[in-house]
């Protein structure tokens, strides 16, 4: 590790695009199902929403001891992941691999592109988190995930705001609700006004060099120490051992290659997203930003939602080092909801699904096992 992590040399976009790992930065994880839903009929639509299901698990896990697990048939095997501002469904690939491929006989994982990003439509309109949640419910209805206590919903950042609205709309259908790095209503904390925070986010699309924009975003999402650390090859899929994983293009044996640093992998993912035709537009970003800015759930609304979902089925986590949505937001959400599990994690930033993926995935699985016992 460098003595001054801020001083580590960030590669240029051209250097990263020429890196042998770049062609396979998005892992070839073949979904078990995929398609489009024409959502929002009667709500200004139709709006085409792109979705995938990874895994087909008819069972879930019950702990017997530290080295043995017993599986039994249960219909509450479904996991819905909702991405945050400007994210696309492939941003979940560490979780998609873990649950939907390595454990594909145990879990089914539904991922989608929220309206405004990726392969979904990007209508010019006033987006709201409630309308985006209704899109999610339309997808759940389309794929047939409609039973009571069937779906584990996980949302991060803007996705966590959308997940709150999903829980308000269909509380009886949720087996569990996990809210990560999100808020009931944005509060920037004493050091930063809402106007300053909003301008910071708008600054992501103000003209600047591509490299500078990605570097600025990386510092908002991650700690410098993690950005400077080597990319972890142990987390990569392999076509030899990962079910339904295609080979990495451009490598002689089809194996996936690490980048030089965690920053370079993040940079490569952002470059791919922004250069994939139609995936990322300023219009879509600003429309999603409007939804985040307008999100507001009152204490009474959140208490009602928690009563109907069941507080013992809810987990909320926030990091003390979150530079996107300050920890005061997570503390307030925990205060209002009074979840069964409320975690304020020292030193955690805004995106544990990436920089703490192993811990994050294990924690989710631990909670899924616990929630299975609730029936």
CATH topology: Rossmann fold
Given the structure, what is the number of helices? 13
Helix amount: 25-40%
CATH superfamily assignment?
Alpha/Beta hydrolase fold, catalytic domain
Strand content: 15-25%
At the first level of CATH, the class is: Alpha Beta
* Major sheet size, sense and barrel closure: 8 strands, mixed
The gyration radius over C-alpha positions equals 20 Å
What does the oligomeric state look like here? single chain
Order of helices and strands: HEEEEEHEHEHEHHHHHHEHEHH
Strand order of the largest sheet: 1-2-6-5-7-8-9-10
Structural class: alpha/beta
Distance between the termini: 47 Å
Low-confidence stretches at least 5 residues in length (pLDDT < 50)? 58-75
Q: How many structural domains does the protein architecture include?
A: 1
Q: Give the mean pLDDT.
A: 88
Report the count of strand segments.
10
Overall 3D geometry? globular
In the CATH hierarchy, what is the architecture at level 2?
A: 3-Layer(aba) Sandwich
InterPro entries: AB_hydrolase, AB_hydrolase_1, AB_hydrolase_fold
Protein name: AB hydrolase-1 domain-containing protein
Domain AB hydrolase-1: 81-224
Pfam families: Abhydrolase_1
Structural features:
375 residues; globular; Rossmann fold; two-stranded antiparallel sheet; alpha/beta
Q: Can you walk through the features of this model?
A:
Helix content is about 35%, strand content about 15%. The protein has about 375 residues and is α/β, with parallel strands linked by helices. The chain has one domain (about 15-370): Alpha/Beta hydrolase fold, catalytic domain (Rossmann fold), CATH 3.40.50. Helix 6 (about 210-220) packs across helix 8 (about 260-275). The longest helix has 16 residues, at about 355-370. The relative contact order is 0.17. Mean pLDDT is about 90; it is low at about 60-75.
